[in-house]
Amino acid sequence: MTELPVYRATIEPAWIDYNGHLRDAYYGLVASLAVDEVMDYLGLDAAYRGATHCTLYTLELHLHYLHEVKNSDDLQVHSLVLDFDRKRIHLGCRFSCSRVSEPVAMADMMLLHVHQGAKPGAAAFPDEVAAKLEALKLSPASREAFGPSSRKIELKRR
Q: The dihedral of CA 77, 78, 83, 86: what is its sign?
């Protein structure tokens, strides 16, 4: 299995709340920035978006806060392709920092490949992107072991 690059976040002072830890909303921002790197890795980069008018939209995001993240922490996001179909990616993110031995947060999200235009609509991934996703996709056992979940996010097969 191929791996996605690790996103490294620099925690800004304004992101820290009155309790001395990362505000809830900034986990979403960091996950979104990690998705940008995933897009670049898959070839859905700025040149692709400009040429095709296609991009990824986030349909759903679940965040699980497991440990406090402090302003002095080095925050990394390890992204994993939990599943995909011809138009969607179920992406998982593990947030980690060197101060804590286990993940400090987990996220999973459903991303949709969209052609933007007068009337935006879902679009199939190009073959080369689908091939990269296939190489990155976790096994069913690894997907089940990914981490805590609330309501399950999954691809509904039609």
A: positive
Phi, psi of 82 (to 5 degrees): -75, -35
pLDDT tens track for 102-122? 999 999 999 999 999 899 999
Task: Give the dihedral sign, CA 11/105/29/112.
Answer: positive
pLDDT tens digits for range 13-28? 999 999 999 999 999 9
Contact assessment for residue 77 and residue 23, using Cβ atoms and an 8 Å cutoff: no
Strand partners, 115: 54, 121
In the chain, what are the domains? 7-144 (3.10.129.10)
Tell me the backbone φ, ψ of residue 23, rounded to 5 degrees. -65, 145
* Mean pLDDT within 121-143: 95
CB atoms within 10 A of CB 27: 25
Does the pLDDT at position 1 exceed 60? no
Stretch (H or E) spanning 28: helix 24-42
